[in-house]
Recover the amino acids of this structure.
């Protein structure tokens, strides 16, 4: 028996793989917590200064209440609070002149709008499900444009490995098909991941290890052509170009989803900020506990 096939060597290799998997999982958790906490901490400081709140705990409690009341992710709300223009501290409303519009109707599986408050998770799930059905696969992800740092962040995925989700948790402006699709504001088909030059070698290896040999990326765009997100389908085998009907349907999905996400940002997120402003004015100079 050759040295390379010794049972001890095989056991050592398996132990190394398990240890690497454990370390990657630990790094994923640390990265997620650190990224979210940094943004939230910045928002806490801003709220303390703006509303004369007594401590960071009170500022966090107000962020948490507004987040839960309007079903807006805490990180999303914190980023929006930091990006939005400073409100008039004497005014009851943060955005007194904004125009409210009806929730857009989607034609690909999400429920008909009822409350006008939007269910972002439900819409992203519908976008992903429809895209995978059109392409004919069960692996894929939805990314949202990061308004604070630029680039794209994964918000929903299915059929992909934890390593894939970790590696592509945040994508910048190059080295991937989704980055190219965002830059060109057009659908991008990668017929064979193993040979397509769009990827960096590190990205290519991460995709192949996840069992994907091909992918198709669709930008989620507003009527003005702004990319607010991306949906990508991954396939186990090399992929042919999609036909005209498939491409057309995905264009519609991308446009409808993009308009819905834009509506969500200027309606539901702003509603959450209005609520945060009301809470800040009410609790300025006093404490409030988390709920």
């Amino acid at each position: 028996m050759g040295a390379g096939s010794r049972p001890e060597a095989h056991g050592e290799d398996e132990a190394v793989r398990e240890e690497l998997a454990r370390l990657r999982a630990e790094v994923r958790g640390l990265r997620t917590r650190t990224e979210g906490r940094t943004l939230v901490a910045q928002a806490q400081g801003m709220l303390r200064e703006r509303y004369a709140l007594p401590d960071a705990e009170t500022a966090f409690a107000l962020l948490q209440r507004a987040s839960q009341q309007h079903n807006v992710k805490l990180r999303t709300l914190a980023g929006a609070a930091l990006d939005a223009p400073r409100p008039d501290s004497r005014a009851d409303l943060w955005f007194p002149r904004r125009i409210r519009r009806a929730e857009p109707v989607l034609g690909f599986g999400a429920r008909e709008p009822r409350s006008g408050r939007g269910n972002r998770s439900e819409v992203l799930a519908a976008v992903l499900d429809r895209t995978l059905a059109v392409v004919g696969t069960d692996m894929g992800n939805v990314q949202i444009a990061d308004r604070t740092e630029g680039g794209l962040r994964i918000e929903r995925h299915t059929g992909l490995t934890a390593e894939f989700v970790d590696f592509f948790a945040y994508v910048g402006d190059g080295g991937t098909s989704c980055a190219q699709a965002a830059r060109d504001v057009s659908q991008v088909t990668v017929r064979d991941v193993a040979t397509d030059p769009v990827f960096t070698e590190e990205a290519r290896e991460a995709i192949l290890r996840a069992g994907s040999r091909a992918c198709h990326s669709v930008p989620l765009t507003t009527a003005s052509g702004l990319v607010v997100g991306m949906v990508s389908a991954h396939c186990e085998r090399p992929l042919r170009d999609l036909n005209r009907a498939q491409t057309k349907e995905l264009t519609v999905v991308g446009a409808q989803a993009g308009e819905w996400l834009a509506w969500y940002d200027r309606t539901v997120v702003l509603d959450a900020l209005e609520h945060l402003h009301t809470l800040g004015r009410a609790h300025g100079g006093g404490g409030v506990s988390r709920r």
